[in-house]
Amino acid sequence: MRKKIELRLNNVPPVDRPAATLLVSLAAVLLFTLSGCRAGGDLKNEEHFVAAEQAEIAAEIAAANPVTAQTTPDATPSAAPSAGPPSSLKLTSVATSSPTAGVCFGPLRVTLLDASGAASVAASAYAIALKDGLGGLFYSASTCTTAVSTVTVPKASTSVDFYYRTTAIGTAEILATQTALTPGALNLSVGAGSVASISLALGTASAAAGTCNRISYSFYDSYGNLAALAAALDVTLQSTDVQASVHSSSTCTSAAATVANAAGVTGNSGLYYLGKTARSFTLTASASALTSSTAVGTTTAGSSSWFAWTGSTTVSAAACATLTLSATDAYANSTVLGAAVPITLATSSGSSFYLDSLCSGALTSTQIASGKASVAVYFKSNTAGTASVTATASGFANAEASLTVVPGSAQDLGLSFGYP
Description:
The chain is mainly beta. It has helices spanning 2-10, 17-39, 46-64, and strands at residues 88-93, 105-113, 126-131, 137-139, 147-148, 150-153, 159-165, 170-178, 181-190, 197-202, 206-208, 212-220, 233-239, 245-247, 258-261, 267-274, 279-286, 293-300, 306-310, 314-316, 321-328, 341-347, 351-354, 362-363, 365-368, 374-381, 385-392, 399-406. 12% of the residues lie in helices and 40% in strands. A hairpin with a 7-residue loop joins strand 4 (137-139) and strand 5. Helix 1 runs parallel beside helix 3 (46-64) and helix 2 packs antiparallel against helix 3 (46-64).
């Protein structure tokens, strides 16, 4: 019977793993049954003998085909795909900060990629040309001391690092090119450096007296880029015209010689300059630790609206004195009239105006001609003391002045002779 079983098994194909697993279980059952039969003394029973033989054979097959619990039926491990040859370039920033004008930034990295986008190992060195659109330079080291225009991906490597520096602000488009590969690009947003100076500007270089002229100032880094304050800062504004003032409103009613600036601001455009005296001036803006700035301007006379008596306020009695009547603005700056203005003259009792320097003809009116700023009149008082003079004209404020009349010099000399 055993030979029959062996003959049958010789014709069985190789057992796969699932079958081996089943046979292991079957063998265990058959061996258990056989053990029971042998214990009962029934070894002559042919069926039991066959079962025993089958069990032994099944065990041998199972042993020749061990089962591993972690093995997935029909699973074949797949090999990791290998990258293809380089076909394009990729630019990335591996820096831990943002680019700042004048500061060495990086590292930046250019990587070789295959057609699938995976990093590709260089079979030979690749020279990569670098360009930017913000006037910056490239460097091979973090000290940014020696500029380069190309970097090289060494053989057996996938990438190379480099550094970038520019003194401008804005968007810098970095471009990496190699004749055989698709270029790589990277946009960097370059910010301004620390505030180093202040720049002052006048709204207009020339403004009439009494007019609020807008002024502004801005903060800049060491390279002339508009920059924001890192901390609060006071700015002092001072003019060479001591009568002028700086204000924080367009009504020029709130003086602000020192202006507070909060952190994060880049300047102030809400200030005004008020000049009252017609003259040139220099305005200076200064702040701690910053380079100061100056602006030169001119305050011109305002519109004609006043008259003013000019000249000496002391005259001699009975002497013909010259007085000057000038057109001015509200701040006593002399003005030139655009049209002739008739003027009425008046004096206190005992004095008069005259036509000429000889005081030969009385005068009660005069005019300032077009294109002129003043007119001369002649005055005489025969009595020592105080005399008042007044000039009036339509559209103008009255001009009044008080003159001191002192006794004149002696005109006759009396002589007496006597005899001893």
